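=== Structure Prediction Worksheet ===
Name of assembly: unnamed complex
Input type: mixed (protein and possibly other molecules)
Chain count: two
Listed entries:
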Amino acid sequence: MLATLLLVFREVLEAALIVSIVAAATRGVSGRGAWIGGGLVLGLVGAMLVAAFAGGIAEAMSGMGQEWFNAIVLLAAVVMIGWHVVWMARHGRELSMHVKSVGSAVSAGSRPMTALLMVVALAVLREGSEVVLFGYGLLAGGSSVTSLAVGGLLGLAIGVAVGFAMYFGLLKIPMRHFFSATNGLLVLLAAGLASTAAGKLVQADALPTLVETLWDTSWLLTDQSLTGHTLHILVGYTAQPSGIQMLFYGVTVIVLLIGMRLSNPSASKPAAHSPQALA
Amino acid sequence: MRFLLILLLSLFSMSAMAEVKEYTLTLRNHKFVPAQLTIPANTKVKLLIVNEDPTPEEFESHELNREKIVTGKGRISVFIGPLKPGKYPFFGEFHMDTAQGVLIAK
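=== Predicted Assembly ===
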């Protein structure tokens, strides 16, 4: 039961933290509950489909289908987050003023809520499919349903509780800095996902590592510790990153920051005259 | 975004296609056989993981930065290295109490 609890908790935590950041970033958007709920449902259905076709996915791409599938799912989430933060750079100021004055009366408008729905769905899909396969394996192996259900539900409950704690913690950030903070978190989240995607493609031998181990901070913080795991989810922490992972991380941060800078109307430097190209 | 995609695509085409040596790990009763495997250091190797159990398992190693699901009665291959000499523990995430092993790069 404890093994089930821990595994479910680890997987749920990843999805829960991502959802909590998305929920905070959409503060003040009317109907956001439906968008986030839609993302969760879509992700759960996707997770079951992925688990059901795990064998087929694994055999695709000469046995490297799993890596490619994960990398594509991760990079799709990176693009969706990028779309959102660039949009927010342009509209964030008016949004935070609206939230301050009229509470939650801002309509979604042209806001790319689909992007965030996809981010939620992709996170749930990735983590959920592992839980489904794990649970299926235990049941097929003759484990008791009760111990699986109790462990699973407890793991789920603790993971969701941490997600809520994160969400309410984020809401405490003063309104003046709120959307810059959630945007910053989203940029780091995207960079971490891009770095994980690079790791998957190295595993598939589709990318060189450049440098196998750039540094090793496992003496300080291991990946499997709770703090290390949480930081891995939030900002892509890895104790032993490869060169290509760092490259993906850096390129994502730089591209998103440039995108935000160019689309921010108040940062009207002469260079920022073609913001349309990025939207 | 377009810039990022172009960069990604150009990196994909750089993949190395050199011949690599293959090593096999078998999963039997949720244990790795052999539980300790020696591979050459500073060389890329291909690890073939054969799951003889009817239930799925996830091969995972933090030290190796590897994570891959192998279905019941299925087999997967994972590229490893080139590694510096040393010990690299791995485990089966779905049966962590029994499925433990270590890769030794010499």
